[in-house]
Amino acid sequence: MDLLRRYQKAGGFLQLVQLIETCAPQKQAQLLGSVEKESVAWANEVRAKILSIDRIFGWDEQPLAEIVSRLQELTLSVAVHGIDKTLWEKATKTLSHGQKRRIDDLSKTKDPTPGEITSSYMKIIAEVRDMINQGYVHLPSVDPGLIIEEDIEDRLSKSPTTGITHHSAAATPTIQPPSKPLAAVKGSDQELGMEVAKLRHENQQLRQQVQVLSNELSAVRSIVATVKKAVA
Q: What is the pLDDT of residues 19-64, one digit of tens each?
């Protein structure tokens, strides 16, 4: 299956990155392997531009804290069960006492499964990617390595399209896997094609959910601002 054909148009590289970075670890590895079979250059570039929980929570304290303050508290209350304690403390250092307490209280009421933790990671990654696309996260100062050039598809199309290189597990940024293994993905071309279609649909649904939550949050903030103004 010519997986890359649909992503070689302008903007296609970003679509492929967003698809892969919001997959569970095994699906992510499966898709990256398929991309690599068609083009080592594409595979290497995708690996370099993928967001991961470890990468996001490894950013400098100030931009990270601002990003975390915009994430859904419910999502964070699940994700905290899988995030390194040191990284979590760094990310939430500047949150208000009330925010920390709400997240902590929510987290204590949950015993999430590995799948639920992974799902919370995907939501965080999708929200952060939206912040990047909207210009809220300024990549040149936060993480220059994630910048995607406008002509990247043209540049990659001029690179060799075949050949396999080998990468260590640490070289490929992925969603941090929970302790229990997730179900394996079958690897035939036909099954992979169906899997890609399914993932694209799931990715679109996830983005829609993020947009709905963002709109609801904006509405709440507007109401709060109106109330404060009226009280003043």
A: 999 998 999 999 999 999 999 999 999 999 999 999 999 999 989 9
Long-range interactions of 215-218: CB distance < 8 A, separation 24+: 217/72
Q: Report how far residue 25's alpha carbon sits from residue 182's, in angstroms, rounded to the nearest whole number.
A: 8
The token pair at 58 is 């490894």
Exposure string of 3-25, with b = 16+ CB inside 10 Å and e = fewer, is bbeebbeeebbbebbbbbbbbbb
DSSP letter string, 186-214: P-SHHHHHHHHHHHHHHHHHHHHHHHHHH
Determine what percent of the chain falls in helix, strand and coil, rounding each to the nearest 5.
65, 0, 35
- The single residue listed with the structure tokens 């990715």 is 203
44 neighbors 191 (Cβ within 8 angstroms): no
Using DSSP's 3-state secondary structure scheme, residue 48 falls into helix
Residue 228: pLDDT band by 50, 70, 90 thresholds?
low
| Count of CB atoms situated within 10 Å of the CB of 68 | 22
pTM of the prediction?
A: 0.69
Residue 37 near residue 160, CB atoms below 8 Å: no
The hierarchical CATH code for the domain 3-162+180-231 is 1.10.220.30
Find how far residue 82's CA is from the centre of its chain: 15
